[in-house]
Design a protein that fits this description.
- It is a single chain.
- The chain starts with a strand and ends with a helix.
- α1 packs across α11, α2 packs across α3 and α6 runs antiparallel to α7.
- A six-stranded parallel beta sheet has the order 2-1-3-4-5-6, sandwiched between helices.
- It has a domain of 174 residues: Rossmann fold, CATH 3.40.50.1820.
- The chain is built from eleven helices and six strands.
- By secondary structure, it is of the alpha/beta class.
Length: 249
């Protein structure tokens, strides 16, 4: 079996992958679903929680899998998608393929409203101080996340390190603007890639994925009736798309 590395996004944890992993029927030692540093435990000493630091961390995760199993399939959602693409740009030698959901490194995308708030000093801190786990859970469920996972993700929101890491991450990316750095390396992406998108994503519109697919030739699968968390909202459809992609390699 080809080893697989799944990278979650914000404000999530590895719990967000459970519905998809069940639909994929992936329960194997070669499947790794790590938590971004600082998201489920205290941020390790010396980890700056910047986008480049998380990319370096993910490369380390991929290197371990590669050493044991050879070229891997990397899958990312939200910030995990951005980090997965950065890994593919920098270390294509580690990968058989990359697949991402509901976020993409795009030079013209400027981020959603919450990303801009988190990018703003003081305003971001106020947002974090005022946001409560129960309200977060309510919002995630309204956006299509299964209630049990939303409750788990919201409970982690009480950890200050997670909120601080998120602020540092978004500020390292100027909200969500990659035009001056990561987006300049889009031509370094391996051709063995795939986009899978919830059609009704309120944070990263489908048009962003369509533009990226048109500009790069990377195939796009649209999950109708799903939002930002299509991986948990429509896991069977996402699993089918991934199986089709992997079987074509």
């Amino acid at each position: 079996m080809v080893a697989k590395l799944f990278l979650h996004g914000v404000p999530d944890s590895p719990a967000i992958w459970r519905p998809l992993l069940a639909a994929l029927d992936l329960v194997d030692a070669s499947v790794t679903v790590p938590a971004l540093p600082g998201f489920t435990a205290p941020l390790p000493e010396g980890v700056p929680a910047t986008k480049d630091a998380y990319a370096d961390w993910a490369i380390g995760q991929a290197e371990v899998l590669f050493a044991a199993h050879g070229p891997i399939d990397i899958v990312g959602h939200d910030w995990g998608a951005l980090i997965a693409q950065r890994v593919a740009m920098l270390r294509p030698d580690l990968l058989r393929s990359w697949a991402i959901s509901n976020a993409v490194i795009d030079p013209d995308y400027r981020g959603h409203r919450v990303a801009r708030i988190w990018n703003t000093p003081i305003l971001g801190e106020i947002f974090m101080a005022l946001s409560k786990p129960a309200k977060l859970a309510e919002g995630l469920v309204a956006q299509g996340m299964p209630a049990n996972i939303a409750a788990e993700e919201a409970a982690q929101w009480a950890h200050k390190d997670k909120r601080r890491a998120i602020l540092k991450l978004y500020r390292s990316a100027k909200g969500l603007s990659f035009e001056h750095d990561w987006a300049r390396d889009i031509d370094k992406l391996p051709a063995q890639g795939a986009l899978i998108w919830g059609a009704d994503d309120p944070y990263v519109p489908l048009s962003v994925a369509q533009r990226f697919a048109a500009n790069t030739g990377i195939p796009l699968t649209v999950i109708e009736g799903a939002g930002h968390w299509a991986i948990a909202e429509r896991p069977a459809e996402v699993a089918a798309a991934l199986h089709r992609f992997w079987s074509s390699l």
